[in-house]
UniProtKB/TrEMBL annotation:
Presence of keyword Membrane: yes
Membrane-spanning ranges: 50-70, 139-158
UniProt region (Disordered), positions on chain: 591-772
Taxonomic lineage of the native organism: Bacteria, Pseudomonadati, Pseudomonadota, Alphaproteobacteria, Rhodospirillales
Record organism: Paramagnetospirillum caucaseum
Coiled-coil parts of chain: 462-513
Ranges annotated as biased composition (Basic and acidic residues): 591-603, 619-635, 683-702, 737-766
Claim: Coiled coil is one of the keywords in the record: yes
Protein name per the record: Kinesin-like protein K39
Pfam families listed in its UniProt record: DUF4175 (PF13779)
Annotated InterPro entries: CHP02302_TM
Amino acid sequence: MPALSRKLRLVRLALLWERAWPPLAAALSLLALFLALALFDAGPLLPFPLHAALAPAFALAIAVLGWRAWRVERPSADEVARRLERESAASHQPLAALSDRLAAGDETLWQAHRARMEQAARHLRPGWPDPVLPARDPLGLRFAALLLLVTAAAGGLADAPARLARAVDPYSHRPVLDSDTMEVWIVPPAHTGLDQILLKPGQGAVTVPAGSVARAVTSWRGWGGAALSAGGAGVAFGEDGRAELALTAGPSLDVRLGLRRAASWPITLRPDAPPAVAVARPPQGDERGRLTLELEASDDYGLTRIWVEVRPASGDGAPLRLDLVLPGERPRQARPLLRADLADHDWAGRPVRLTPKAEDGAGQTGEAPPVEVTLPERQFRHPLARALADWRRRLSDAPRLGPEIAGELRQILEEPQAFGGDTRVFLALSVTRHMLMRPDFERGRTRSLLWYAATRLEDGGLPAAEKALEDARARLERALADKADTARLSRLVEELEAALDQWMEAMAELGLDSSVPPDGGTPAADLSDMLDQLRGLAETGDREGLRRRLEQLSRLLAEMGPARPGQRGDPANAEAMRRLKELTSRQQELLDKSFRRAPPPDERIEDDEDTPRPRRKPTGREAAEARRMAEEQKALRQALEQLGRSMPQAPQSLAEAERSMRGAESSLGDGAWGEAADQQAEAVKRLQDGARQILERQEAARGKGSPALIPRDPFGRALNGSTFADDGRTKVPGRGETMRAREILQELRRRSGDPHRPEPERDYLKRLLKPF
């Protein structure tokens, strides 16, 4: 019966549903609960272990319940028949009767019974499955899960995919990339001078110097730990959430959190190139044995040292190292100038190899190809000086010749006229002779004594003055490179000024014309203005300006130098300049005395617009002092008149200085100290103008033309072939401007240290003073 078979299949399905539905409903409830938690975005709020186990736990539970639903016991045919009969309320179990067989009895009666059972089976109804969940879930938890799902869907459907992804994959949620929870930056090596590089999420390729260090800090705390890695090397984050890794290779810098790479940045390491150094101009020497060599050097991150290594051409002997001072701190490009006086060295006059070398902050060294040159040798014109230099050289090569040279010195000492009776030369030669008579004499000391005697005979006290000047200049250069404070810079500038005065006096004593450089550059009289500028720059702390001015002064002094043969100045002019300098100094002393005795400026006024003010009558002691100073002023005026008559063409300024001296003499006789001080100050100024005019005439007489007609660049500097030449007419801040700048700087410092001023104002003042 097809209809009965269909009814039995429906009953079988109903029974199967009733048995499988409870575990299947539980699985669906768990799925609804997981989806609700996912849409609520509750996973990232859990600790990482719970968040990571959330999805697997739900999946496992759902799989177990699904497996149980699949593996339920299938209903038997008898159970299906009984259920169909029970659902139809049929009596006598018609389906069981239809399956029975007649064992014995009346066949006709049995057939009638089967017909009646078949008729009853046609009226059977399968019915609906029985509700089984209320008994299994009396609290209705399945509806609670459904309600949570509906509520979560109402607010989380907009970004449901992202929330579901975060629930399933805990690593897809990366708050560590937020700057509040994680920062990664790269620290370049200190010698590069580069700033730190902060890496941002999604940033492109980064090029960093070799030797850089990657640092990271994070507040992430999760399962599996965190690590910072690059080029196969890695380091784990410490308990404090920090990690540091030296970058040795690329191609990327990665941050791993747990089992996932949370961030990655492509990196390229740029190697540090060694410094490059070359000879800018070939080495040059002069007859005084001084070597000049200009170099040019560069480095990608900055130079730290530069020097020249001197070796004999034969390769014997330890090398000699000549250090140069770099302009500023770690310059990337430099063009330093080497000025070395090696005239007293054993290698003077012999071929040597000069090897310029430079070093950068990473300790890498670069060198230029060696340059072969013959070290300049001092050329002596004095016969005895030449002999002493020759004996000195022979002692260096053959110390056994000491007794023989001692005998020569004994003959010289017996004839003092050979060295002009100079007691210092006599003492040096006497000590040398006694030392050479001993077999174990000190070769270095005897060489020094012989050299001192030779240079003393040749140039008097000039070599010692030159050495003192070069030492003072070198100390100031070194102090600038070491960032010395303003007090030390000011002290070194004063030492340089004193050494320069000593050098000028030594040249004047020899009658050498140091007023104009060989190429017609700046007159020596303008050196005082340059020194004033150096002093002002040192007191205001302008190191860069001081460095430039010192370089200008160094080049100027190298150009000036003592005159070479054919360039010696006129002795008459040298004597006139010496006497004029002496007169200026004496006049300045008188001015200082008058100024100390003069009354304050407001008391010097004898009358005003209405009533005259009587002058105070000087005491007897004051009158005697005034007469004495008037006699000194008269003697000074007469000396100036005599100097003017001795000159072929005296400058007009000297005549004006004489008139001012005459007025000062009259004022001193009347006891008017204030008027005398004013007139003496005018006399000093006119004397200085006269010295300047004499120097300009000498310059014009050399064929350079009038100084006023010297071609100049747009900045007012003389175009005479010297890079740093300046004839004093370049517009630079004068002493008044420098003093004003110094006063402003002192006032700013005072205000910045005043605790009663507002904090914003003090911070602003400190920022202003930071460069100084």
